[in-house]
Specification:
- By secondary structure, this protein is an alpha/beta fold.
- It contains five helices and eleven strands, in the order βββαβαββββαβαββα.
- The strands form two sheets. Strands 1, 4, 5, 6, 7, 8, 9, 10 and 11 form a nine-stranded mixed sheet that branches. It has a two-stranded antiparallel sheet with strand order 2-3.
- A hairpin with a 3-residue loop joins β2 and β3.
- The longest helix is centred in the C-terminal third of the chain and has 15 residues.
Length: 218
């Protein structure tokens, strides 16, 4: 009796890690305030580890990171302010992970104590930053696409003041040593993590993980 060899093809699959789109600004470590040393990829890795998820960080240009996360190509997006106008498919995870200071940067030595003092100055700011939407000055605000362009504006004296967040200044100053922070905190910006709407089932757990991370960081 002839024997028959039956080959059973077992289904194969690939286990995908949780992919987070991270803007290029978060490729470096920076300081927030006097105490916190922040490295966003490291923070997100720890937060997702509490959920039993291994994350893969995909570094992209800042705007492209938002676009691709919003399209669902990646599961989540780094940290951004709210509201995120270009992220209609992204869910904001409460609470905020960090709060950063908005400061004035210049070549000049004058001191800025409040936002109103900027009204007569030539101001440069990065396009799309939420805090710029609430500013109203007599002079036109020059909008640029990247922090490097803003730093160039200031270093070449094409504008009086650059309005930005302290972490961005901290990254720019080693490359532009002639610029300086000329104010204290003018505004505060809250930074939130965002996930694609397809990941909504983990939203509540993620919020708890962020709260636990924040409590352990202080």
């Amino acid at each position: 009796m002839a024997s028959t060899l039956i080959l059973i093809s077992l289904p194969s699959w690939k286990v995908h890690s949780f992919e987070i789109a991270v803007g290029e600004i978060y490729t470096n470590r920076f300081a927030i305030g006097e105490q916190q040393d922040v490295y966003v990829p490291e923070a997100l890795t720890k937060i997702y580890a509490k959920l039993g998820k291994e994350v893969q960080l995909v570094f992209l240009p800042d705007e492209r990171a938002v676009k691709m996360a919003n399209m669902g190509i990646y599961n989540a997006l780094d940290l951004r302010t709210a509201p995120l106008e270009t992220g209609s498919n992204l869910l904001r995870v409460e609470p905020e992970l960090y709060t950063v200071d908005v400061v004035a940067v210049s070549l000049n030595d004058y001191r800025i104590e409040n936002i109103d003092q900027l009204s007569d100055l030539k101001v440069v700011a990065q396009l799309g930053m939420q805090y710029t939407k609430n500013l109203s000055f007599k002079n036109e605000i020059f909008y640029v696409s990247t922090p490097a362009e803003a730093a160039e504006f200031i270093s070449k004296n094409r504008a009086d003041v650059w309005i930005t967040t302290f972490p961005i200044v901290a990254l720019a100053m080693p490359h532009y040593p002639n610029i300086k922070v000329i104010s204290g905190s003018l505004l505060e910006e809250k930074l939130y993590h965002y996930i694609h709407k397809s990941q909504e089932p983990i939203l509540a757990q993620l919020s708890l993980s962020i709260m636990e991370f924040k409590s352990q960081s202080h």
